[in-house]
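To fix ideas, we now present one chain and its tokenised fold:
***
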Amino acid sequence: MARLPYLDKSDLLPEHQDLLARNLNLYRVLAHSPRAARSLNTLARFIRDGSRLDPRLRELAILQVSYLTRSAWGFSHHVRIGREVGVSDDEIRAVAAETDGRPTALDPLARAVLRAAREMTLERAVSDETFAALRRGLDNERLTDLVVTISFYNGLVRLLETMQVDVEEDYLPYLDEFPLPTPKP
């Protein structure tokens, strides 16, 4: 259960009801601060609709951040979005394999994207070697968009976990299909 109550449109002033156009638990918690919700949504919309980064690479990066941080909400939502933009089930499974250091059939750029997401999540910065690999496959704009995406989702998963945002029921099957790692004792 979330640490703050989930709001409904009827709980909001008319000028803020559009914040709940999508009835997702994240938005229902963020609506407690309409200005913060709008600001976060602006960057999220850019990442999803304005960035020139290949949506498949974007989703792989987001899945990697969510997988590493064990963010059930983020991972389940981005399995669905990833599939919508062409990420295959094998590529989703490759996130876990790459995390564990097992070989995958991913192309070199996709592997570099996952490595960058892991490095930024665990080490706070991308290594020179990984950055060079990204530069071989991405122009400066797309590379910047990738770093912004990874940074944003590292922040978002922390917000989700701190507020204890629940996964909506229709997203739970994704977690059964692609389980998150269990915490180490």
The chain has a mean pLDDT of 97. The longest helix spans residues 140-163.
